[in-house]
Amino acid sequence: MCSLALFPPPLPSGQTTLCESNNELLSGTTTEDQLKQVWSSPLSLYFPRESLKLHSRTESSSKAAFLDHSETLWMRSAATSEHTLLEGSGCILALLQKVSSFHGSLFPHLTLSSEDMIAEFSQVLNWSDCVVRAFAWHPHTDKFAVALLDDSIKIYNPKSATTPTLKHRLQRSVAAVQWKPLCASALAVACQNCLLVWHVDPCSLSTRPSSGCAQVLSHPGHSPVTSIAWSPSGSLLVSASPMDTAMMVWDVASESCVPLQRVGGGGVSFLSWSPDGSHVLASTPSALFRVWETRMWTCERWPCVKGRCQSGCWSPDGSRLLFTVQGEMVIYALTFTDTPGVGLCGGPQAAAVVADLSETTFNTPDGDIIVGGEIQSLAWDSTGERLAVLLKGDPHAADRPAIIAVFKTRTSPIFELLPCGFVQGERGAEPRLMQFHPSFQHGALLTVCWSSGRITHVPFYFLSAGVPHCGLSGSPSLPRPQTVPADFANQSLFTELMS
Amino acid sequence: MFSTEQTCWFVRKVICWRAAASTAWAVLLLGPITAALVILGRFSLFHPIQTISECLSLLTSASAVFSLILLCGVILMIGFLNLEYYTVIPTIACSKIALLGQLLHPRQLVNSAVHCVMGIVVAWCCAITIGGRYETLGYTCPQSDGDSSSQMCLNEYHLILLLAGAFVGLSYSLLGVIHNMNYISFHTVQQYKYLRFKGALPLVVKCSATQALYSIRNFIVVYFFLGYIPKAWFCKTLNLYLNSSVHPLDSIAGLLDLSLVYHLWISASFLLFTWHITLVLFRIFVTELYSFPVQSSFTEDAHQCLAKVLNEKQPMILKFLALQDLALLSQHSPSRRCQVFSLSQPGGHPHNWNAISKECLSMLTDLTQRLVAYHDTVATNGRAKSLSTGSERKTSSETSVTSGTEDLMSPRPTLLMKTPASVFARSVVGTPRTPLTAPFTPDLDSPFASPALRRLTAPVEQCSPWFGTVQSPHVMRRGPKLWSTSTDSQVNGSPQSSPASVPSPKQEPSKPSLLAQFLQNRKEQVKNFLAKRVLIMYLFNKLPEASSQALFADSQAHIWALEGLSYLVQASFSEDQFGVVQTALPSILSCMLVLQEAVDRHFKLPHASSKPVRSTGSMGDSTHKTLRFALRATLKTAIYRITTTFGDHLNAIQMSAEHRKRLQQFLEYKE
């Protein structure tokens, strides 16, 4: 296993990564002309911070001044009489709450405010300050949803002229959005107090769908929701809140939920459903994560040594889980052998370290740059050939920027990691959030949301090993003839043969 | 009714054992629950040690053992009632009067009476365990006239506890009908029984406590007003006297005794908790997945195979479990899928696949026809013609009735025909299962048919109205139109029509038939009179969502059929070696698309897409209220599952142009 030292050095500042072609990352200098050219493509977006913030402040403050008041006088008086009747049981409930909050002292995250908690457990780097708070590609088409700082969600579709803006009274502090698989319209939104499922008709010309298009899913004690995951078959939705030890499995159509409660961990912070639908990763705020098996919903516990599981991602066939632990600079892998009926007995015994991302110094014309450190999030593309790792960096040190490191991966016949390169944006822009396009035809497409409010797309052109090769040309599109790839590109960082 | 030897093997071998196991667990849990009751009932804040020692001595006493045995008997009885009354297709009352009919059904009355008695028994056991002033019905007290000799007096504390037990038992039974407590829903998330029980426990505790609170509140109100009747009756029959020196309990001061209310609440909670636990265990055990063999190597087991079982009409629970198994095997089990796609050994026919797909498709087609027929009867204003029941019956059974003779009809039959889920009409007609006389609204809730009969014959009865309608749409179309104007005036325009109904002397000579005019006016007057009576309108008005809910009452089966079919088709893309699925693909797709169209049309009706109010604090399962939404979502997902798997290959399939257009929408993700 080798370190980041095998990577090609980062680009000098002012250059941005454009795409990967012929096994090499291409970069370009960002002059204003090029910027215009690059950003003029329909899916590249720019949300200047100023245009949003002011807007959101006034709106939210005026909304907060009024109370929601939809009950009639009679209903309210009935409710109060019920309250007095239920006072006895209310006392008992309060007592229970006290007892349960005893473990608040064991789990310090329970004392955070809900905004801080979302920021702490979000997959987005520096969530509270981020213009783009959540991003989701549609699993089947070229369509995506962007949640912005002003609590609105915009839906972009290159084939349609309208960009619907979704706003809802309860849609505050959006932590995650995800499209329902095998459906064109449903979008799940994890909010501060509840879960919203929007039904946005793709044929509709309306730019402001009414809040009647949204289903509100809420369960007492289950807020803030920091992570959601649809089952790949589209039938179930799981949601997690660091405040709630139960993970909710929702049947969205009937708005009913089944809480899956397990003692320990103090909550659930991050969820990831494997692409084959057989497992769900659920990490907790303490040094423990669980892997649920989705047939009978049993789980296995994985205690970590140092910190909580920060992020994780599944290989496309669902057999391999990569995850990172807070406080450690390595990527671990777990391999699940699919033996139906045996359940979890066939699971792995221990996690293997597959990559070491400890800090490495690169000499660049602009001076030394230190790359590496803790990992914010992981993303694996749907072909299983590129793995993107968002490194946190240090916001206070200029020479330790947050950066995205991309690995080439191979899952069969053996699991291998090879260096690919760093993805960098324009000067001063930090990557905050990244996602691979789930169904990109020519390889992989990484979408990155930057701290400046830009959203860019970095294509990686390659022929997938799963697809039969039609020729010997390395890439489908050849911008210009390339030299032979540098020697470090073929040096493997990790293979299963080594370990 | 049906051949017991063939179909009941499942009930005999599986369901009965599951019910027995669930009841056994409930009996085992009775011990700890009773111990909790003893501690809660005798708890005294100032003498904790004494409380514990008292409780321990009580738990080992003979009376406690005896009451525990009695309670076991009660649990066994409740378990038996659960088994006897459960249903997988909920009965949905389309109007208040139908609900009333359900409540007053003889079978339900028996149920209520048994629960009432069980409530008294449980309350008696509670009285024994709580002890103190509640222990006995009579006690010796000095005679009121100053005589030194003593007499037996009525212990009102004991009596009020027994009556509370009876009241709570009765309300449990009645609320069971209103909230469809006997309906068993299947969970979308499979879990092991223990974990499911553990998950349900907090809800059971909460529900029992709250429901006990409300029941006791109602009971106290009833006792305050009517408490003297049972008191006097007991005194008279048991020859007891009322102790005049003790304050009577049916007064405000008597009922403000907090300790009394607490003990009433504790015993009611105990009663409801044990019963709810029994019910929850029964539901968990019965809905447990049962794995049917896809193919059997022995001919004597052939009737237990999935394909055979799916085609059975009775009992419904068997069909539901088979469909559930189909949905899960198609999703999770490649080896069993392989058996579905396999060919028969001599002959090479895909019998398994043919039987499964045929049954699933026929169920979906059946639902489509039901939806289309319903849509055709509903007027454009969305309100189901309240007269459709009566008029359809009339036009189909007595074809001689025309609009001319309609005027001569007496007001009384008119009233009867106005009843949407007409209880009276049903009882008058007598044979509710013949297609001609069955009401048009798809209510399965004939209050005078036994629930067991209904459970067993549900598919027949449900389908029956549609047989006639699909064959003869003219009769059906004409039915509502004959009456549409009069209904509207009767419901909406009563103030307008009342002046018109006043006979005007000027017009009289110009009219040819005085008698007809007179009768018409009378009829109008009676109608207006009745329409203004709030109670009658309240009873007979259709509940807005109910007909839509009733239409989709058994849709869980359709959901599984859709899931099973779509997963099998998806798997066939890579697993089907012989191409057995390909031959059925056009029919599956067109069936789903037609159903999709019908469902879309149905959801355009008012009330169909309105979300029901979610009831959280009740043990009743409200899943049936949202089944139509679940069906709509599953249907869309199922079509998408097929289109994303096959992609452009679907263009090679023979289809009508309309369906192809629709399918193209799905291929472009525009639905």
Automatic annotation (TrEMBL), chain A:
GO terms for biological process: nucleocytoplasmic transport. Gene3D superfamilies: YVTN repeat-like/Quinoprotein amine dehydrogenase. Residues 113-461 form the Aladin seven-bladed propeller domain. One of its GO terms (cellular component) is nuclear pore. InterPro entries: Aladin (IPR045139), Beta-prop_Aladin (IPR057403), WD40/YVTN_repeat-like_dom_sf (IPR015943), WD40_repeat_dom_sf (IPR036322), WD40_rpt (IPR001680). SUPFAM superfamilies: WD40 repeat-like. Coiled coil: none annotated. This is Achalasia, adrenocortical insufficiency, alacrimia. The lineage of its organism: Eukaryota, Metazoa, Chordata, Craniata, Vertebrata. The gene is AAAS.
Automatic annotation (TrEMBL), chain B:
The chain crosses the membrane at residues 20-43, 55-79, 116-134, 157-178, 220-242, 262-286. Keywords: Membrane, mRNA transport, Nuclear pore complex, Nucleus, Protein transport, Translocation, Transmembrane, Transmembrane helix, Transport. Residues 483-493 have a biased composition (Polar residues). GO terms for cellular component: nuclear membrane; nuclear pore transmembrane ring. Residues 383-412, 479-512 are annotated as: Disordered. Belongs to the NDC1 family. The keyword Disulfide bond does not apply. The lineage of its organism: Eukaryota, Metazoa, Chordata, Craniata, Vertebrata. One of its GO terms (molecular function) is protein-macromolecule adaptor activity. Its main location: nucleus. PANTHER family: NUCLEOPORIN NDC1 (PTHR13269:SF6). It comes from Sparus aurata (Gilthead sea bream). GO terms for biological process: mRNA transport; nuclear pore organization; protein transport. Residues 397-406, 494-505 have a biased composition (Low complexity). InterPro entries: Nucleoporin_prot_Ndc1/Nup. It is found in: Nucleus membrane; Nucleus, Nuclear pore complex. This is Nucleoporin NDC1. Component of the nuclear pore complex (NPC), which plays a key role in de novo assembly and insertion of NPC in the nuclear envelope. Required for NPC and nuclear envelope assembly, possibly by forming a link between the nuclear envelope membrane and soluble nucleoporins, thereby anchoring the NPC in the membrane. It is a multi-pass membrane protein.
